[in-house]
Design brief:
The protein is mainly α. The protein folds into 2 domains: about 1-40 and about 180-370, no CATH class; about 50-160, abc type-2 transporter like domain (abc type-2 transporter like fold, 3-Layer(aba) Sandwich). The protein has 15 helices and 4 strands. The radius of gyration is 29 Å and the shape is elongated.
């Protein structure tokens, strides 16, 4: 009897979903749109910064320096200017973000074994681009200076003197090329799942009330927990479909590796979905209209995105915001999904986050069931 009642409620919820084609389209298409938009735009990898060249020397040495910068894909030399004023105009207008200036006597200084100075101008209006350009310009300049020094010493028969007294060999684990997509796409999985789950379920009970069908639920012998399970099940299945969409496209389009157990990832994603779907259903039991439910969902969504570590590292936040982040379920799932996909860890490495999600899931689901009253307000 219990299974029959629950099956009927789940079937009824599916019928309501199918009868709303716009919502159905949003369920399956919106995750793909969000993945492509954020996957390509939410990145810290800065390449091909538009750069202007003011070569006042026109010597072989100056050309070698420019070629050293050109060889790195950080800078795209799109302009060859004749004056500082022209360079300034390009940067002021936003056409160029950086400028390399070689002085007229650059080659002469190098030929005499003297120190030669060049200028590298960077537009600091965009700190992300400016920071990457500054680091790349400094590193390329140091590398070229070392190469010039080595060539001079080798010409004098002193090649051994160029060996540095200390050699630091760096290693980057899990993401050796520092590809930001490997960090962002797993985070997008959590963000998209939360967005879809909360937005879809936050209107579930309110929709029943506005359509006048809640009276049918009130007169049926269904308990609050049964109603919650019946309401959540269709959206769990739809959210799992969305999860597979994002995983497959993230792997095929953005080449994100999945080094961990895919079964473990799906199981922990299901745990996170129970929490977020329960949160959406809790909103639905509180709100009086669908508009109010959606506004409440957005009010919860925005802070959780910024306090979860998706965009900004938690360690860089003030202590108060770090403390508030512990109340955000997305924080724990982002740690889990990034650890499983990139590091290939097992459940033991993320046991604390898993326990936190279990607690959130139980509390939120019970609160949603308690909030629901089988009577009209």
């Amino acid at each position: 009897m219990l299974n029959s009642r629950l099956h009927s409620l789940i079937r009824k919820e599916f019928i309501q979903i199918v009868r709303d084609p716009r919502t159905l389209l949003m369920m399956f298409v919106l995750p793909i749109v969000m993945l492509f938009l954020l996957g390509y735009s939410a990145t810290n990898d800065v390449r091909n910064v538009p750069t202007a060249i003011l070569d006042q020397d026109r010597s072989v040495q100056a050309r070698d320096l420019i070629n050293a910068y050109r060889a790195a894909d950080y800078f795209g030399f799109a302009f060859d200017v004749e004056s500082v004023d022209e360079l300034k105009w390009l940067i002021d207008s936003g056409q160029a973000k950086a400028g390399l200036i070689t002085p007229p006597d650059y080659g002469q200084h190098l030929a005499r074994g003297e120190q030669a100075q060049v200028a590298f101008v960077i537009d600091g209006s965009d700190p992300t681009v400016a920071g990457t350009a500054l680091s790349a310009a400094t590193l390329i300049g140091q590398t070229k200076a070392t190469a010039v020094l080595r060539a001079e010493l080798e010409a004098r028969g002193q090649s051994g003197a160029v060996q540095p007294p200390i050699e630091v060999r760096t290693q980057v684990w899990y993401n050796p090329d520092l590809v930001s997509a490997y960090f962002m796409i797993p985070g997008l999985i959590g963000m998209i799942l939360q967005y879809m789950a909360i937005m879809l379920t936050s209107t579930a009970i309110v929709r029943e009330r506005e359509r006048g069908t809640i009276e049918q639920l009130i007169i049926t012998p269904i308990g609050s927990l049964e109603l919650i399970a019946g309401k959540l099940t269709p959206y769990i299945l739809i959210a799992f479909f969305d999860l597979m969409e994002v995983l497959i496209l993230g792997t095929l389009v953005f080449n994100v590796p999945i080094n961990g157990d895919i079964g473990l990832l799906l199981a922990l994603a299901a745990l996170f979905l129970v929490t977020t779907l329960g949160l959406g259903l809790l909103i639905s039991t509180i709100a009086k209209t669908q508009f109010e439910a959606m506004m409440t969902a957005m009010f919860i969504q925005l802070p959780s995105i910024f306090l979860s570590g998706f965009f900004f590292p938690l360690a860089a936040m003030p202590p108060l915001l770090q403390a508030l982040s512990y109340a955000v379920p997305l924080r724990y799932f982002l740690i889990i999904v990034r650890a499983v996909t990139l590091k290939g860890v097992g459940v033991g490495a993320v046991a604390g986050e898993v326990i936190a999600l279990i607690i959130f899931g139980v509390v939120v689901t019970l609160a949603a069931a308690r909030r629901f009253r089988k009577r009209l307000d």
